[in-house]
Design brief:
Length: about 140
Amino acid sequence: ALAAGAIALAAGGSPSARPAEVAGDTGRIPWRAWDPAEAERLAAAGTPVLLDITADWCVTCKVNERLILETPEVRAALARHGVVPMKADWTNRDDAIGEFLAAHGRYGIPFYLLYRPGREPRVLPELLTRDLVLAALEEAAQGS
């Protein structure tokens, strides 16, 4: 019960809270495969990019995906703010991903990086909350 409560609080609500529903949304985030050059190009052209580095064995990644990222509210915010979602899969310890993490002072996942047009990318915390993600997406779009 304590773990369920902690997970619910990480989602931004009480242990009995459910993610907010957005009318008509039944899909999933249209993740693109991670391409660092493309992420930089998009941000330089004024389009924010959300990078999610994840792995099948990463429990925290899966909790964030289920309770925060893959919710109708976050999907709607990505679309509303024109944020391009990219995902990198580190399940098999890809060297390019490991080097990218190290270049950002990280050696583990989850790792979330929000490319913001005209500004340095913003590293999001490992434990996400709905409110934090929604505010970060809005803030990133304001610079575009």
